[in-house]
């Protein structure tokens, strides 16, 4: 809920910022805006610190009031910017008094509900129902290996100290089922003198936890125990466990605070006692669990999914041949989530065993699950959303904007969230760093899956389990957060704040779901449909999206840059593709634009006006290079610019201070068409924040670029370097060794100047390098050993047809995990296999993987 207020707060803070020069505030409006900001901040703080169940009834009132204020303010700002030229405008908007009265009324009601909650909690009983002992009823499949690992971990006497063993995974993945199997295993029962189980849940009650652990199996709690105070119960439990080898299961723990409230009860008897806990929160597992004890439950494989569905529906009977193929598809569509398979299995076990019935279910497995009378599945997954902190809820809901099985790049997500304005600014961190933290927090809660990783091991893209995505879309619909346009969908939202178009849709579907009026307040428009389906371009929609902040239409190609976009002056994020033409001068009218991603088919000069867009942070051109007009003089230092790909570098551009004008750039792509002067040095050392550099050149006899790398000076901050179409001269690699933070090095389509050889001499140490890629090189001899790459994790070699072998010493790098070889000579393939065989036979090293591709 509070994310609606945060977006309003962000706008107000930007307008009222004393350092901003864009908006001139009238004596009438400034006090109003300050008052509105104060009320919004106060209401947000109150809501963040309250959890009254009746607060839900107020959410729509608060949301609508915040949206109304935001729309009034931004509508006026857009009108002013479209009406007047220049970069300074007078802010004189409509009266905000009515909106402030609505917020005042909402605040009074919130305070009233909080008082009611205090009174109710003071008079309520401190007792709570205690859950019965776990009874193993659920059919389980695919946990044998997990169970063996856990049994070994909890019964091992290598460490006799008390150990906490967390079982962690997403909702519905089978954590509790696995813990129950462990708890009831005969080996566990005989190994421990005392075993107890309690289920905790989100809104835990310490007293209920203590009574649950103290209740003896098959017995009621004594009146004496029930009348004890909480501290007395803690002492009784501590004494009962003292000097005994015990195993306690704490099922469904959500917070570190819960553990802190009860941990005193569990003495360390130095006799091999264990505490097993199940949680969705990786942060809880990491902070509470003993180091190295965390057990992550994985999704089921396809064969395991079918086995579970088969046993749920047919028991020990055989599945009729006519149903097996359909059944396997149904199991596969459950995405490896045991709870989903059990639910769909329950539906099929009660249904007629006919091909028609099963085919009907197979058409939409997720819809069948959602329509079942048993709400357990939906409730289990919804718990994860309900438990999210307020600042993470919009980040989670935003994932519903992307299609099923879609990989969303980390950079794209961060830039979209920043553009939206629902991230709270922090003096110590940038908004993109806040976005990075939010992504990590969603992964920690097992709500996002890492789909692909970068060469440095960090996440490149994320995805979401299909069934969790269904919950995401349903919640987004309930909160009027997002309209997801989909074929045959009946959902229509009145004035949605965000609109996304599914991969199955065309323009007619958008027109059917969203009127001009409903689009007028949308802040995000994301088109995910592939180019082939976009016969009719949505240019006519652009004029309706007058308040849009994020416009992502990268997946379709326009004949040329749509002129209608010039009018979208509230844009912060723009991703677009064009079949011809370059960036027009009109782009400079988008004064608030932070991220510009464009796919252009031809190399064109970027209009000089673009360098005067003060908010521009990320500029990325695909299939093209940025050509800056030769006559343009750099007038401004662009402090906010962090990403720029890819710039055509000339001697004149350097002399006119281009690099000095982008002091805070972190990612940079440069292209050298020629070497302008034999005395020119390209010094990048004063780009102190540069982390990623891609350097390419026009390599032929006339350009002189054979000597390019001799003239480059790199900053010590560099972490990732890609060299494309360059000449590697004798001592260049030694120069790279001096970069203390270099983690990733990619050398692609380059030429070795001296004898087609790379000899890493003694003392050449890439001290931080973790990833090395050699591709399409004329390299013949490569000499190196483990001392040259002490931290290398991954080595990729491709299309190096002249290379004789991989140095045998590479295999002795203790951190090396993967060697990947594709389309290389037989001798390179043989050397890779030999390295692996040697590591296994002589050093018992089975962690090193070797992958060969033809």
UniProtKB/TrEMBL annotation:
Residues 151-318 form the NB-ARC domain. It comes from the Eukaryota. GO terms for cellular component: cytoplasm. It is found in: Cytoplasm. Its main location: cytoplasm. InterPro entries: Apaf_helical (IPR042197), Disease_R_plants (IPR044974), LRR_dom_sf (IPR032675), LRR_R13L4/SHOC2-like (IPR055414), NB-ARC (IPR002182), P-loop_NTPase (IPR027417), WH-like_DNA-bd_sf (IPR036388), WHD_DRP (IPR058922). It holds the Pfam family WHD_DRP. GO terms for molecular function: ADP binding; ATP binding. The keyword Coiled coil applies. Residues 55-116 form a coiled coil. Residues 540-798 form the Disease resistance R13L4/SHOC-2-like LRR domain. Residues 402-471 form the Disease resistance protein winged helix domain. Keywords: ATP-binding, Coiled coil, Cytoplasm, Hypersensitive response, Leucine-rich repeat, Nucleotide-binding, Plant defense, Repeat. Confers resistance to late blight (Phytophthora infestans) races carrying the avirulence gene Avr1. Resistance proteins guard the plant against pathogens that contain an appropriate avirulence protein via an indirect interaction with this avirulence protein. That triggers a defense system including the hypersensitive response, which restricts the pathogen growth. Belongs to the disease resistance NB-LRR family. This is Uncharacterized protein. It comes from Perilla frutescens var. hirtella.
């Amino acid at each position: 809920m509070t994310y609606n207020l945060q977006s309003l707060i962000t706008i107000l803070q930007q307008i009222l910022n004393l350092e901003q020069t864009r908006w001139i505030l009238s004596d009438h409006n400034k006090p109003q805006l300050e008052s509105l900001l104060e009320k919004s901040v106060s209401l947000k703080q109150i809501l963040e610190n309250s959890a009254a169940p009746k607060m839900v009834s107020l959410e729509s009132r608060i949301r609508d009031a915040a949206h109304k204020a935001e729309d009034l303010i931004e509508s006026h700002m857009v009108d002013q910017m479209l009406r007047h030229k220049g970069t300074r405008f007078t802010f004189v908007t409509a009266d905000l008094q009515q909106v402030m009265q609505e917020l005042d009324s909402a605040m009074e009601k919130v305070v009233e509900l909080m008082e009611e909650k205090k009174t109710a909690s003071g008079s309520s009983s401190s007792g709570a129902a205690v859950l019965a002992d776990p009874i193993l009823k659920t059919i389980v499949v695919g946990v044998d290996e997990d169970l063996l690992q856990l049994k070994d971990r909890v019964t091992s006497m290598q460490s006799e100290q008390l150990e906490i063993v967390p079982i962690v995974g997403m909702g519905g993945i089978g954590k509790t089922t696995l813990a129950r199997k462990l708890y009831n295993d005969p080996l566990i029962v005989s190994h421990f003198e005392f075993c107890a189980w309690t289920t905790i849940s989100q809104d835990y009650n310490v007293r209920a936890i203590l009574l649950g652990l103290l209740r003896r199996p098959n017995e009621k709690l004594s009146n004496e125990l029930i009348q004890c105070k909480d501290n007395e119960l803690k002492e009784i439990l501590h004494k009962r466990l003292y000097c005994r080898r015990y195993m306690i299961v704490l099922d469904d723990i959500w917070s570190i605070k819960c553990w802190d409230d009860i941990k005193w009860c569990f003495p360390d008897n130095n006799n091999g006692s264990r505490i097993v806990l199940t949680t969705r929160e990786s942060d809880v597992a990491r902070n509470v669990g003993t180091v190295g004890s965390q057990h992550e439950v994985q999704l089921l494989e396809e064969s395991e999914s079918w086995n579970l569905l088969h046993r749920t529906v047919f028991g020990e009977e055989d599945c009729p041949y006519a149903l097996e193929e359909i059944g396997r598809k149904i199991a596969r569509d459950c995405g490896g989530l045991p709870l989903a398979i059990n639910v769909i299995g329950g539906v099929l076990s009660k249904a007629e065993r006919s091909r028609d019935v099963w085919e009907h279910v197979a058409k939409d497995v997720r819809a069948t699950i959602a329509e079942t009378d048993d709400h357990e599945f939906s409730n289990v997954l919804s718990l994860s959303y309900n438990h999210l902190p307020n600042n993470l809820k919009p980040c989670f809901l935003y994932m519903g904007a992307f299609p099923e099985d879609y990989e969303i790049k980390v950079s794209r997500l961060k830039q979209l969230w920043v553009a939206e304005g629902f991230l709270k600014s922090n003096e110590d961190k940038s908004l993109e760093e806040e976005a990075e933290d939010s992504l990590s927090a969603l992964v920690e809660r097992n709500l996002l899956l890492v789909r692909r990783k970068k060469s440095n091991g960090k996440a490149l893209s994320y995805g979401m389990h299909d069934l969790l995505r269904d919950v995401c879309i349903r919640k987004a619909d309930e909160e009027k957060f997002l309209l997801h346009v989909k074929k045959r969908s009946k959902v229509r939202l009145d004035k949605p704040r965000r609109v996304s178009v599914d991969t199955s849709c065309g323009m007619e579907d958008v027109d059917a779901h969203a009127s001009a009026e409903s689009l007028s307040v949308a802040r995000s428009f994301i088109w995910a449909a592939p180019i082939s389906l976009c016969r009719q371009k949505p240019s006519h929609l652009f004029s309706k999206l007058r308040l849009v902040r994020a416009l992502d239409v990268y997946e379709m190609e326009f004949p040329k840059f749509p002129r209608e976009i010039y009018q979208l002056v509230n844009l912060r994020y723009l991703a677009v593709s064009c079949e011809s033409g370059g960036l027009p001068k009109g782009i400079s009218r988008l004064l608030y634009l932070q991220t510009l991603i464009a796919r252009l088919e031809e190399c064109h000069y970027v209009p000089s006006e673009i360098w005067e867009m003060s908010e521009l942070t990320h500029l990325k051109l695909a299939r093209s290079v940025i050509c800056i007009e030769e006559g343009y003089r750099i007038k401004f230092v662009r402090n906010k610019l962090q990403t720029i790909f890819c710039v055509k570098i000339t001697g004149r551009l350097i002399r006119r201070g281009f690099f000095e004008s982008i002091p805070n750039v972190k990612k940079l792509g440069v292209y050298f068409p020629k070497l302008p002067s034999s005395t020119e040095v390209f010094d990048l050392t004063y780009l102190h924040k540069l982390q990623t550099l891609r350097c390419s050149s026009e390599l032929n006899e006339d350009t002189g670029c054979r000597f390019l790398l001799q003239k480059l000076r790199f900053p010590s901050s560099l972490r990732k370097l890609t060299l494309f179409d360059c000449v590697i001269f004798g001592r260049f690699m030694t120069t790279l060794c001096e970069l203390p933070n270099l983690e990733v090095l990619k050398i692609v389509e380059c030429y070795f100047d001296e004898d087609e050889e790379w000899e890493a001499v003694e003392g050449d140490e890439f001290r931080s390098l973790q990833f090395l890629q050699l591709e399409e090189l004329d390299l013949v001899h490569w000499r190196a050993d483990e001392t040259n790459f002490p931290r290398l994790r991954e080595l990729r070699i491709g299309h190096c047809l002249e290379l004789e072998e991989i140095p045998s010493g590479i295999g002795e790098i203790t951190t090396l995990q993967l060697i990947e070889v594709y389309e290389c000579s037989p001798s390179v393939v043989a050397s890779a296999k030999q390295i692996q065989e040697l590591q296994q036979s002589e050093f018992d090293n089975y962690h090193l993987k070797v992958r060969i591709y033809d």
